[in-house]
Design a protein that fits this description.
heterodimer; A: about 350 residues; mainly beta; 4-stranded antiparallel sheet; 2 helices; B: mainly beta; 22-stranded antiparallel barrel; about 5% helix; disordered N terminus
């Protein structure tokens, strides 16, 4: 028996030695101390759905320097799955991480977490009404969540009429007096009006198929652009349009039609609220008082898919995000108000939204 | 005469193969012998120039908890992408994508026609009696579309005489229960077998969540501390049942009829990501599947020719539900998708051996798919309800003819011509050429080479999925060639040693990938040209170091660069010339079996080099999957009593308790155990 055990032991020893050194190396736990000052641009990089690889980048236009993965580096943990948007309120940055069901609040200079609102359904955007009240829009939910940003708690819901959870989609919000307007996007065709005193939807306005974004200009006109749906959609497929809506009367003042098959998106305003920008293959710009769509683009298409767009509110410079193949670091192009390229820098995967500090 | 010779030669190989197979399940007393390695100058003509990996029954019947995903991971160098037990497990064969690996079961293609790929976690290894891989070009012998290769699975009518029963129960970590039962009846003419597997587990293993931190607050809600929590795998439960019925009738006059029917009922939760801050109790994320697959076959064998007919049917119902509890007990659907696939299959094949030097085959198969995919319930603009989805059918015809020639025993050549039709589109001709030759009869040193063109047509989702389906997609197409060498030496009852090395090189154009659009959904496009090449090495050693001892070592290694050689998608694109994401450049596996009398010990080891998660191969803090090694062991003891044979087995997975990931944000379980007891009553056996 003894002699039998010997080869057995040798065999185990040989096999065991093969596995030595086989440990997965982990980079975690370490945190970096940031202290950025002055104005800057946050870029939320969505990452890939279900990969949990969303990241936050920070760009300083004064020094032309970018810092990537700043949330991870400052906090030693991941930002999550699909970072959708970011807003600033009360000197905090609020990052809405869609498929992580969370909103993180961070310090604007150190990027360190201050708090988090958890257990949201599929949050898209946050709009602040006061220190103790904010609305959070959702996808796959027919409710807009009411949260208390001070206590980081969900305090209630606004149920949107004629919407099921499955077809639920509320997106971007703008405020006019005591009313908050919100575009309903996925398999929807309307803008809803919410009374912030009663937290009720009090009115709605039908626009074209799938309005994707919503802004309010200096003349209290709201702008939304529809994507027109897609081919084969039971909801319909039409030529997309840009709409000018009067916020006071909540009526469409003007509809600017695009060609059938165009895919306009990302309506943005400059800092003074008098010039409108959007993506439609190229980058387009139009005075908010214009009565016709421009004939020539502001920036021409550069063999890629532009995914994000923002205008520096302080100097009118235009930033365009190129997601390339959505599986590598995206590129941000920075242009002067005259359309000259000033800088370009790599950020994270699928840069989708911006936030100016 | 020729056929007899071939059969005799096959028999020798089979005996050798069975002897090397080692631990056979369900038998308490075993004896192992190393046979003599015969000089096989005359090789099976069917396999001229073919690169093939065969999984023996010891690998397949290791324990009842394993799926084919586990078998492939530990016994071949195929990369299996999975995030734990009972989760979607797909493969990258020779650096290609999951839909480039074709899978057949008893001759019928079982790739999901909507997705193109196969989930190997839904194939219990105890249900498979014969499994092999046909690498690259070699797959053209059996099917088209296998740009990576073919996984060929089959059951066989090998049941012992009379009535027999086998029952195995497994109890493991995380309250995992596995059960297997098999009833067989065998006679000269009839072979009947019924198998059932049932597995269930909450699968709530613990892990340290490196991606998340829990905050410690003071009374004013200021964060005063943070730590990585020890969490449980949330929403990971599964309950899978499989039943397989087989009946074979052999006329003993050259005809055999067979029926195989396999039913799957699977109910699995989809685990939450490590970065999910939702409350597990408020969300449900579940996938259910019911699949029925059946094949009726008739084989007619004569001295010089063989003919076969097969007919089959597949029905798959799949449901995916993502729900949230909106108030106590009131669950609302966020996504409710349903799909139904019905496939009718027919195949006719023939083989003809006019002389010792020639061998001809012809094969025609048809798969008619009917797919109904319902993905989302919406409210229309006029207030009516509608479902977003598609309802499509497609016929897929594939025909091939081959001629194999062995002018002298040591040299063989084979030409295969295949033609396919999908819907109404005919693919261009798929030709393949194979050659092999024994250069050194002493060590059975054989050289082989093959070349083929191949195509893969888009899947039904690629073409029709709403939103995003792209009916204008072109076929993926490419050229592959293989060059290889193998040897086999041994000494009776002392050792046997064999090995092979294969170089392969393939280029795939119009590679289809799904990319997001600015409208918020994904859409497939033909974008990449991929150059996948590399080396595959295999080795097998069987030794009888001492009397009564038997050691079997099986190793494999692959080096698989899979490089994007397409055009830049934008001036800033950094992915050209880089390795494809989620394809490791190196992978290796090793299994060692040691047996002595009724004891059996098994060591399994696999290694995958780092996988990039970005097409640019960047090393980011949030997107890097380092290499990992995995070791599993099991110890088995067989006991024989008068009325019953017992087999006791303890399996230890992740022996060194590695903290690892196969897919981003999906932690894998640490060390875990499962104990199996196998009972084989001997009520009918005369001993």
């Amino acid at each position: 028996m003894k002699s039998m055990l010997k080869p057995f032991t040798i065999f185990i020893l040989i096999l065991s030695s093969l596995t030595l050194g086989g440990c997965m190396e982990w980079d975690y736990g370490e945190t970096e101390d940031f202290d950025v000052t002055g104005s800057g641009l946050f870029i939320t990089n969505e990452g890939n759905f279900q990969y949990g690889n969303a990241t936050l980048s920070y760009y300083d236009p004064a020094t032309n320097t970018v810092q990537n993965e700043v949330f991870f580096r400052a906090n030693g943990m991941k930002l999550g799955d699909v970072a959708q948007s970011m807003s600033i309120y009360d000197n905090k940055g609020w990052i809405v991480v869609n498929n992580s069901h969370v909103i993180f609040a961070i310090d604007l200079n150190t990027f360190k977490e201050i708090g988090r609102i958890e257990n949201l359904t599929s949050p898209r955007y946050i709009h602040f009404l006061s220190d103790e009240k904010a609305y959070v829009t959702q996808l796959w939910d027919n409710r807009i969540f009411i949260v208390n940003p001070k206590k980081y708690e969900i305090t209630g819901y606004i149920t949107v009429p004629d919407m099921t959870m499955e077809s639920g989609s509320t997106e971007q919000m703008v405020q006019y007096g005591k009313y908050v307007y919100c575009n309903c996007w996925s398999y929807q065709n309307r803008i809803i009006k919410i009374d912030t005193e009663t937290d009720q939807v009090v009115d709605q306005l039908t626009v074209g198929i799938q309005p994707t974004s919503l802004v309010l200009d200096r003349y209290d006109k709201m702008w939304t652009v529809t994507d027109g749906g897609y081919e084969g959609s039971p909801y319909g497929h039409e030529a997309p349009s840009l709409y000018r809506i009067d916020a006071a009367t909540f009526t469409i003042e003007k509809q600017f039609k695009f060609k059938f098959g165009d895919w306009p998106s990302e309506v943005q305003l400059n800092g003074t609220g008098d010039t409108l920008y959007w993506i439609n293959n190229d980058i387009w710009r139009m005075d908010v008082t214009a009565e016709r769509l421009p004939v020539r683009p502001f920036l021409e298409y550069r063999d890629t898919k532009y995914y994000g767009l923002t205008v520096n509110p302080f100097n009118g410079e235009v930033y365009v995000a190129d997601a390339i193949d959505y599986q590598q670091q995206g590129m941000i192009y920075r242009y002067s108000p005259q359309g000259e390229l000033i800088d370009e820098f790599y950020v994270g995967i699928t840069p989708g939204a911006f936030c100016w500090k | 005469m020729t056929v007899t010779y071939r059969i005799a030669s096959m028999k020798k190989i089979l005996i050798l193969f069975l002897l090397l197979a080692g631990v056979m399940p369900g038998f308490a007393q075993r004896s192992y012998k190393l046979g003599e390695v015969v000089v096989r100058a005359k090789r099976p003509m069917k396999e001229i120039g073919v690169t093939k990996t065969t999984f023996d029954s010891a690998m397949l019947k290791e324990n009842i908890a394993l799926s084919m995903a586990d078998i492939l991971a530990f016994n071949s160098s195929i990369f299996v992408k999975s995030y734990g037990r009972a989760t979607l497990s797909t493969v990258a064969f020779r650096g290609t994508s999951p839909s480039h690996t074709q899978v057949t079961w008893n001759g019928m293609r079982i790739n999901n026609p909507m997705l193109g790929m196969t989930d190997f976690s839904t194939i219990p290894s105890y249900f498979i009696d014969q499994a092999s891989l046909l690498h690259g070009t070699s797959s053209v012998n059996e099917t088209g579309g296998g740009l990576g290769g073919l996984v060929k699975l089959a059951t066989e009518p090998d049941t012992p005489e009379g009535f027999n029963v086998q029952y195995v129960q497994g109890i493991g970590s995380f309250s995992t229960f596995d059960e297997f039962a098999r009833l067989t009846y065998g006679s000269d003419k009839w072979h009947v077998s019924t198998r059932a597997v049932h597995s269930s587990s909450p699968n709530d293993y613990k892990y340290i969540n490196h991606d998340k931190k829990v905050n410690i607050y003071d009374d004013d809600h200021n964060i005063i501390g943070q730590y990585h929590p020890k969490e449980r795998n949330r929403s990971g439960a599964f309950r899978d049942t499989h039943i397989l019925q087989e009946v074979y009738y052999n006329t003993l006059k050259g005809d055999r009829l067979g029926l195989n029917a396999w039913y799957i009922d699977s109910n699995r939760e989809l685990p939450m990501l490590t970065t999910d801050y939702g409350n597990e109790a408020d969300f449900e994320n579940r996938q259910r599947e019911q699949t029925f697959r059946s094949v009726l076959s008739w084989d007619h064998t004569r001295s010089k020719w063989k003919a076969g007919l097969k007919g089959g049917y597949i029905h798959t119902w799949m449901a995916y539900d993502y729900r949230r509890e909106v108030s106590e007990g009131n669950w609302a659907s966020m996504t409710r998708s349903r799909s139904k696939v019905n496939t009718i299959y027919g195949q006719a094949e023939g083989e003809y051996t006019p002389s010792r030097k020639w061998f001809f085959t012809a094969n025609l198969s048809a798969h008619q798919h009917f797919v109904r995919s319902q993905d989302k319930n919406i409210i229309l603009q006029d207030g009516d309800k509608a479902i977003v989805g598609y309802d499509k059918g497609r016929i897929e015809l594939s025909g091939s003819a081959s001629a194999k020639w062995q002018p002298i025993d040591r040299l063989g050549m084979s030409v295969v011509v295949r033609e396919e039709m999908f819907g109404t589109d005919w693919s261009p001709l798929i030709p393949a050429f194979f050659i092999d030759g024994v250069v050194l009869p002493e060590g059975n040193v054989t050289l082989k080479a093959s070349i083929s063109r191949n195509y893969r047509v888009p899947t039904l989702n690629d073409l029709y999925f709403l939103p995003g389906g792209n009916p204008d997609l072109r076929n993926e197409h490419g050229f592959t060639y293989d060059l290889g060498a193998s040897f086999e030496v041994g000494k009776k009852e002392v050792y046997s040693l064999s090995g092979s090395v294969t170089w392969f090189d393939s280029r795939i154009d119009d590679w289809i990938i799904w990319l997001p659009t600015t409208k918020g959904f994904f859409s497939p496009r033909n974008v990449k040209e991929v150059h996948a090449y590399g080396v595959e090495v295999t080795g097998n050693l069987g030794v009888q170091p001492f009397k009564g001892w038997f050691l079997d070592l099986n190793g494999s290694y692959s080096w698989t660069p899979s490089i994007n050689e397409g055009e830049k998608m934008s001036p800033a694109d950094q992915s050209v010339g880089k390795q494809l994401p989620y394809v490791p450049k190196h992978s290796a596996s090793l299994t060692g079996r040691l047996s002595w009398r009724s004891w059996g010990f098994l060591y399994k080891w696999c290694w995958y080099s780092e996988r990039f998660t970005m097409s640019s191969n960047d090393y980011t803090l949030t997107g890097h999957l380092p290499q990992y090694f995995m070791s599993n062991i099991s110890l088995e003891k067989g006991l024989s009593f008068k009325p019953v044979d017992l087999s006791l087995k303890l399996a230890v997975n992740n022996l060194f308790n590695e903290d690892y990931l196969s897919v981003l944000s999906r932690p894998m379980p640490g060390i875990n155990f499962e104990f199996f007891i196998g009972i084989t009553p001997k009520f009918n056996r005369k001993k």
